[in-house]
Design a protein that fits this description.
By secondary structure, the protein is α+β, with helices and mostly antiparallel strands. The chain has 2 domains: about 150 residues, Jelly Rolls, CATH 2.60.120.10; about 80 residues, Arc Repressor Mutant, subunit A (Orthogonal Bundle), CATH 1.10.10. A 5-stranded antiparallel beta sheet has the order 1-2-9-4-7. It has a 4-stranded antiparallel beta sheet with strand order 3-8-5-6. The radius of gyration is 19 Å and the shape is elongated. The N terminus is likely disordered.
Length: about 230
């Protein structure tokens, strides 16, 4: 793990994250002075569930999973691609990280001082509005995930994940799957054996094809129908 402090490695943040477009030069300077950029290798833990939150994270490069553990139970609640914030729920009322964050690919993460972000929310109403928009989007995503996990059958849940990976993460119908079968099980709330069976079913029905870690969606309309009917 490589740590870079107070460098210029997060300057792209104000260009790629719309939340930072409204900040003045002095406000951006505050973020730059106190930020830390860290490179993580695939598989490294970025945040551990239950630790005290002192930063808001901005994922500059890579892909991460957000997962919650209780005893032997593990649930992946979300996958975040680059140019996304992590930990905005810690801005108000949540003192400790409710989930762990792990690198699915090599990542570059900007750690922003949480007090700096709180200060900017108070000082800049447009920035505050943008941050609240991010928080609200995460709430809606949580509702969608809850509905999928509790109301849909196994095939519908798996279709949801494939559609999400294709349209939101990789933006292609063919991609290398960065998740293990166990990860897919934790993401869909099913047993690994069920994941393997559903993959076989989808391949048999010519919905997808696989080769090693590569997966291709062959019948997008049908996959969307399976997702819709649950």
């Amino acid at each position: 793990m490589e740590v870079r402090n107070n460098g210029n490695h997060c300057e792209e943040v104000d260009e790629t994250a719309s939340c930072f477009n409204s900040l003045t030069e002095d406000e951006l300077g505050l973020i730059e002075r106190n930020k830390t950029e860290i490179k993580y290798s695939k598989g490294e833990t970025i945040i551990k569930q239950g630790t005290k939150a002192t930063n808001i994270l901005y994922l500059k490069e890579g892909l991460v999973k957000l997962n919650m553990n209780s005893g032997e139970n593990n649930l992946i609640i979300n996958i975040k691609p680059q140019n996304h914030f992590i930990g905005t729920e810690n801005l108000y009322g949540v003192e400790y990280h409710p989930y762990s964050v792990t690198a699915l690919l090599d990542c570059v993460v900007c750690f922003l001082d949480i007090e700096d972000v709180r200060y900017l929310i108070k000082q800049n109403i447009v920035f505050a509005s943008d941050i609240y928009r991010v928080i609200n989007a995460n709430v809606v995503l949580t509702y969608d995930r809850l509905f999928s996990l509790t109301q849909k059958q196994l095939h519908g849940r798996f279709a949801d994940i494939l559609l999400c990976l294709s349209s939101k993460i990789f933006k292609d119908t063919k991609f290398d799957l960065p998740l293990s079968r166990r990860d897919l099980a934790a993401l869909t709330g099913m047993a690994p054996e069920s994941v393997i069976r559903i993959i076989k079913d989808f391949k048999s029905d010519k919905l997808i094809s696989t080769q090693g870690k590569s997966i291709e969606i062959l019948n997008m309309p049908m996959l969307k129908k399976i997702s819709a009917v649950g």
